[in-house]
Amino acid sequence: MAPTTKVNKFDKSWEKKWYGAGIFYESSEEVEFDVFKKLEKKKVLSNVEKAGLLTKAEELGVTLSSIEKLGVFSKAEELGLLSLVEKLVGVSPSVLASAALPILVAAVAAIVVIPDDSVGLVVVQAVVAGALGFGAAGLFVGSVVLGGLQEAD
Which ranges does the record mark as transmembrane (predicted)? Predict the structure, then answer.
């Protein structure tokens, strides 16, 4: 399910609070969304072929046989990653962007709260803030990509 048009709604019981996903979130109509049809319309495979990405990947040592030896596809099936991706494609991009903001704030808070007294604490500070910042950036970039895939034709 992916939103196609934004709908402004009035909710009498809504209250502004200091937490939650209401910062970027807008209500929307739900419609069926097929990511494969959208990728086909955008000619992603043709663009990958024209850009020579497969040749570049092969030069870096990533080939279909190396992926096969690692068992990436069978592991993805075992973990249920394909169904997870299918569910995530139907999520509104604004939800992903809204989730990125508190994680980014947590990354900044980790830098501020964790003291710089020793090398170990600086390493902990860098690892925690880096992981949170990377996660927030991933969610935000994911929301932009997902928004591009879900935009109305």
Answer: 95-114, 126-149
Considering all CA atoms of the chain, what is the largest pairwise distance in Å, rounded to the nearest integer?
59
pTM greater than 0.70: no
How far is it, in rounded angstroms, from Cα 102 to Cα 34?
Answer: 30
Q: What is the DSSP string of 17-47?
A: -SSSSTTT---EEEE---HHHHHHHTTHHHH
What token pair was written down for 7? 């709908």
> Two tokens at 48?
């990958």
Q: Strand runs (DSSP E) across the chain, as ranges?
A: 2-6, 28-31
For the stretch 14-46, pLDDT in tens is: 666 665 554 444 555 555 666 677 777 878 778
